[in-house]
């Protein structure tokens, strides 16, 4: 893997995207930054991370034949790769909060932002952005954030954690490319936060309702049982677990 180390950039996702415009980059090129001045999260949010304490990086993945219908499987493999890496560091009670937040003991330790470059029905390349809280202990105000240090009581070498993550990710991407969709979905669903537990959700109209997560569809919609009715399916902007 070709790794570009940056002291600072606006966002490693944006950095890689811009670099791609002017250079032909190798598959699995990685950009990792000590500091992001405009770290981006899902749905237009910000990703805040204290400089030098955490991992903020992006990976370019090129595809030869990856149809857009399977795009959620990429979210699955990235989530699972992070989960397995954190398991190796003995992080307790790891779960994936749909669609792809990584939680330990209900607190968020890692977030993923994937941006796809699409041509026709194919995803030609994806920029996989990962933020992982490693040595930060003060999340002023963000009450449900955590880090390896908070959970394990000691600091970790950022390069060591990055290498573990990249190795797992490269293995999971191979499984994705060999089309193991059913097996990957099963593993993803097994790791889902609140699976088969009744919980409270907020719909896009702001109303709260009770439901039980049953799994995800092929396209990544969340399947929720509400009362005795048929399973309902939701997109990202249509539902938010309240916990
Ligand atoms: C989220 O949970 O909202 C997604 C967070 C993704 C953050 C990472 S940090 C590296 C990469 N560059 C960015 O600007 N965002 C992603």
Structure description:
The strands form 2 sheets. A 7-stranded mixed β-sheet has the order 1-2-3-7-6-5-4, sandwiched between helices. A 5-stranded antiparallel β-sheet has the order 11-10-9-8-12, with no helix packed on it. The chain has helices at residues 12-22, 71-88, 148-152, 158-177, 181-190, and strands at 3-9, 30-36, 55-62, 94-97, 101-104, 107-119, 122-132, 198-203, 208-216, 222-225, 232-234, 239-242. The protein contains 5 helices and 12 strands. The protein is an alpha+beta fold and 243 residues long. It is globular and about 55 Å long. It starts with a strand and ends with a strand. Helix 2 packs antiparallel against helix 4 (158-177) and helix 2 packs across helix 5 (181-190).
Can you lay out the helices and strands and say which pair or pack?
Blueprint: E1 3-9, H1 12-22, E2 30-36, E3 55-62, H2 71-88, E4 94-97, E5 101-104, E6 107-119, E7 122-132, H3 148-152, H4 158-177, H5 181-190, E8 198-203, E9 208-216, E10 222-225, E11 232-234, E12 239-242
Parallel strand pairs: 1-2
Antiparallel strand pairs: 2-3, 3-7, 4-5, 5-6, 6-7, 8-9, 8-12, 9-10, 10-11
Helix pairs in contact: 2-4, 2-5
The structure holds biotin.
Biotin is lined by residues 11-13, 36, 39-42, 45, 47, 56-58, 101, 111-113, 129-131.
């Amino acid at each position: 893997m070709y790794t570009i180390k940056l002291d600072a950039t606006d966002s490693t996702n944006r950095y890689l995207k811009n670099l791609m415009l002017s250079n032909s980059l190798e598959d699995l090129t990685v950009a990792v930054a000590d500091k992001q001045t405009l770290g981006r999260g899902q749905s237009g949010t910000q990703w805040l991370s204290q400089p030098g304490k955490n991992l903020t990086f992006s990976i370019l993945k090129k595809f030869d034949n990856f149809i857009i219908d399977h795009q959620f499987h990429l979210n699955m493999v990235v989530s699972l790769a992070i989960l397995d890496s954190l398991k190796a560091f003995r992080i307790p009670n790891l779960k994936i909060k749909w669609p792809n937040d990584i939680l330990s003991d209900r607190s968020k330790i890692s977030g993923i932002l994937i941006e796809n470059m699409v041509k026709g029905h194919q995803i030609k390349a994806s920029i996989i952005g990962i933020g992982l809280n490693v040595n930060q202990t003060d999340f002023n105000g963000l009450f449900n954030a955590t880090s390896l240090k908070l959970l394990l009581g000691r600091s970790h070498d950022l390069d060591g954690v990055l290498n573990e993550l990249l190795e797992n990710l490269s293995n999971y991407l191979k499984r994705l490319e060999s089309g193991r969709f059913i097996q990957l979905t099963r593993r993803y669903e097994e790791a889902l936060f609140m699976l088969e537990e009744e919980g409270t959700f907020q719909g896009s109209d702001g109303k709260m309702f009770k439901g039980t997560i049953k799994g995800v569809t092929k396209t990544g919609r969340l399947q929720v049982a509400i009362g005795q009715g048929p399973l309902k399916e939701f997109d990202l902007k249509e539902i938010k677990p309240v916990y």
